[in-house]
Amino acid sequence: MKINNKNICLIAQVTIPVSDEAEFKQLGSEIFPLIAAQTGWTLTSLWAEPSAEASEITLQNIWQTDLSTPAQVNEKLGEAVGALFETHAELESNLTKIDLLIAGNELFSYTTNFDY
Fold this sequence. Notes:
There is one protein chain. The protein is of the alpha+beta class and 116 residues long. The protein has three helices and four strands; from the N terminus they run E-H-E-E-H-H-E. The chain has helices at 21-39, 70-87, 89-102; strands at residues 4-17, 42-47, 56-64, 106-115. Strand 2 and strand 3 form a beta hairpin. Helix 1 (21-39) packs across helix 3. The termini are close together.
């Protein structure tokens, strides 16, 4: 059997109050396409379906990169955001706003995809 190794994916798992979902999605629509375009990565955002009585919702932003190590991913992401700060004045403010919604409830991990 041949196994094809794919590149690293960066997964950002975030938990936010259900009441902040619309604001998070709005800010995300202004932030994430810029980062995707700058890095050349693809973003898939997975949202858990909360129960009717849930006060929080968990989502995963999965960044499919063209890199092979977490260090390379982190470096390219930092460079991309830094470059975007130079050309998009609102980005830093929007990142601050989205960080306030997240309030530290985030977990970053890295995966490697395989095709069998």
